[in-house]
Amino acid sequence: MKNKVLKGFTLIELIIVLAIFSIILTLVMSFIDPATRLMKSTSVKEKTGAYVDNVSEYLENSLRYAKFVHIYDGEEPSVYQIRDIVSLNLNGAVTIKDNSGTPYPVEGNVRVLKMDNSDGQIYEKVYKFTTQDSRLGSIEPEDLMSSTPVQDWTPVLNKEHFQDYSFYYKAGYYNFEPVASADNRPENYKSHLVEMTDKDGNVLQNGRPNAYNFSMSVVAYGTENGVNAEATDGDVTTEPEFQYPARMDTVSMAFINIINATSSQPCYRQKYETDPLTLAINPVFDPTNHRPVFEQVNPARAFHYYKPADGAPNNDNIYIVFVNPSEMNDNMLIID
Predict the structure, then answer these.
(1) What angle do CA 195, 114, 147 make, to 5 degrees?
(2) What is the domain range of residue 232?
(3) DSSP state, residue 210
(4) Which of 87, 118, 130, 200 has the fewest Cβ atoms nearer than 10 Å?
(5) What is the pTM of this model?
(6) Phi/psi class of residue 169: alpha, beta or left (left: φ > 0; alpha: ψ in -120 to 50)?
(7) Strand order in 214-222's β-sheet?
């Protein structure tokens, strides 16, 4: 009886099988990698889309109907600057609290938003103000607005937005432009912001927001990659670069009450006239009913945009100072 000989794979056959398997695995991975990147890109798109919608809604609810808006791009406004903004735009504004017809100063809140590019959050600070009339003499700063806020910097956006992504804010119109990668590997792809131009190559808005079309570019980027912050090389400032995956969206709006400053929810103040002989400043009364005469307060600077000069200190954050009519007690003053 003959013994059966068990045959197996030869070494050459094993090598051939492994080679074929390696080729198949390479082909499969070549399909998986783009799919993975597509999923990442889709995730960023959905995440940023939802986030920008929240930012847009928050900014619109806060700013669209503001009486005045001052934007500080890269420099935090001081308490003194905030007081000056209130005084410029609400100088002498009054309200009627009762049936006596006696005018009282308007009280309200002045809010400061901080778009913080160090952590992507938006913070809010609130001060209380009471209008003063500079026509009657110098104003005591603390009487106009206390240097202590009633609410210090408080985050306003849900922390869930920052689990995997952070956000970067830039005032104005910008495009996302890729940065050349030395090794051309997808994980090393980077982009940066460049000013948007028209068909003739002119920078839109000249990089400066205005009351008719305020825009904010928002970049979402993965926190695991981080962002290369702005760096200064001599006199040249390098814009931050965002590593893939990253996405940019734009928030735009118009400030309705500022555009229609003379007709939309105006403020009023008591009218005064100067005695030509004594130079005394006296209130004006209606000769028919002896009630005070009021005049409309015309905002001296309802919208303004500040940006430090080239070479000046710049903290890369955006600050917005504003007052909303809904937070002022001037609604009872009716002018016939």
Answers:
(1) 135
(2) 38-327
(3) B
(4) 200
(5) 0.78
(6) beta
(7) 165-171, 214-222, 246-253
328/296 Cα distance (integer angstroms):
16
Residue 329: phi and psi, rounded to 5, are: -100, 40
Phi, psi of 218 (to 5 degrees): -120, 125
The domain tally of the chain equals 1
Q: Is residue 26 part of a domain?
A: no
pLDDT digits (tens, 9 = 90+) for 61-119: 888 888 889 999 999 999 999 999 998 888 888 887 666 667 888 899 999 999 999 88
**Is the distance from CB of 209 to CB of 232 less than 8 angstroms?**
no
Which H/E stretch holds residue 256? helix 256-259
d(CA 265, CA 323): 13
Q: Coil, strand or helix: which one is 40?
A: helix
Is residue 17, in this structure, part of any structural domain at all?
Answer: no
In a domain, 141, yes or no: yes
55 lies in some domain: yes
Q: Which one-letter DSSP state was computed for residue 242?
A: E
Radius of gyration of the chain (CA): 30
One-letter amino acid identity for 62? S
Contact 295, 271 (CB under 8 A): yes
Query: 66-87: b or e for each residue (b if 16 or more CB lie within 10 Å)?
Result: bbbbbbbbbbebeeeebbbbbb
